[in-house]
Amino acid sequence: MKDRIHVPPGRRPAVAAGRPFIALTAALAASSLVVGCAAKPAAQVSREDLEKSVTYTTAPGTGHLERVTWALPNGEPTSLDPALTGDYPGSTVEGNLCEGLTRMNADFSIEPGLAEKITRPDDRTIVYDLRPGVTFTNGDPLTPEDVVYSLERHTRDKKLGSFWSSTYGAVTSVKQTGPAQVTVRFSKPSAIFEQSMATAAGLISQKAYVEKAGAAYGTPKGGVMCTGPFALEKWTPGADITLTRNDRYWDKTRSARTRKVVFTFISDSSTLTSALLAGEVDGTYGPPSTSYPVLSNSGSGTLYLGPSTQMVELLPAQKTGPMADPRVRKALDLAIDKASLVKNVFGPAAEPLNTMVPPGMWGTGPTRTIFEEAYAKLEDTTKPDLQGARALVAEANPSDRSFVAAMPAGDQTGLQILTFVQAAAKEIGLTMTIRQIQPTEFSDLFYNADRRKDVDLVYAMGYSEFANPISYPDNYLRADGLFNWTGYDDPEVRRLMDEGLHTADPRESAELFVKAQALYTPERLVIPLAAPYQQLYMSKRITGAPASFAYLQMPWAAMIGAV
Asked: What structural domains does the chain harbor?
């Protein structure tokens, strides 16, 4: 994926491009919410009405605004350096400052961005012809040298520790090949590189500015220098970030309608809810799940649902113990009544999930039918099969039937979900203990094996940053995968995934992926639970923001205008 493992921001932000990103923010729970523009409690929203109401975008904003205040419910960004941005706070802000050679739309489609023309003379070469007249927010022109420097920076500077270096694993060279042209060559074709260029992996910064700022680039002291519709005006640590409209912006069709956007860091649910209801904050992505009832019925704003590439899942954490056995993992999966879990935790704002790749990741292109048909052939685990689950436990006959599931402390939605799973485990003779871990320590579970030594399952919300399933499972499937904690290694799956990742033919890539999916899904490398929708809350004075999860890769704030 651009797929990642998002651990509670602050965590060490993201994983390299194309890797699972697990977002450990509270999942989307709701007993009541607003879909589209109609305010109804979730219990009153039928599945048919919901599907009609889910939207990629909101009504266009037409009027100009002096200021919009936006909340970051996951706290303050750790960095705005594209190479070091991989969590919700940083990505939410950064997409309004920096741009890539391609750009993402609300429906997850990709189109030319800073490159006005993209050609593939062969399947190991991509040529980008840059747009004329593009300038950085300081007025300096964008050059091929800036592009080459920005792309090479992810792998050239080892001390930087770019989260996106794996995006460039098959890249052999990035060179200027004309006055306004950059050519990228590969050792083997890539199925995801062009999509990656619309994410932080492909964002372009000014070479001279980055070199002058050094290690301070992307920090409150060093700032950033990009070409987006906004410029970074001020970052006051612990307080707020202010963006100001870039009046030099090259794309007049996407010029910002708002002069200033101020981001506030409000991680306390009650404080944020009060601020939204009082109109002190104009909007937020991912509002507190505990606040859905009051927000959906407020007269001050609207709560929207949009398509998403997120999924709620449980990650096996050990090579030993009961959860190291795929039969026990499958038993637990079969014991969980996912349909009831979703109904009770998310209302209509999510779907039960049978594998680690959710429907939102299938995209809207011609390969979607391949993914749909393959998913329909997978075992349906949305309803419990206690008899089958007990038989698997009896067959595995684990010496220890007790295990520990970890979650971030204070996440009430996570606790609700794990309590549901705990009851399912008890039904099949397993004993699950829920361990709540402080967020800063919890983030370490994903990168430090010692932190996981007493944990068997980890609760998480994963997501892909673009709509293509081929890369998300990769770090669970390869023997050296960052999140392959059980030691899974299937040569045939590895072959299918490698071939799928390294073909320029989207249909061939999709067909190889679904063959691999049919083989690895029964192993329960993750225990998939639900695929939630994206939530967006905006006050009634503004509109225009994209409602889909693609917002993370978009200049969404530039689309906001007065109603």
From this structure: 80-228 (3.90.76.10), 230-302 (3.40.190.10), 310-532 (3.10.105.10)
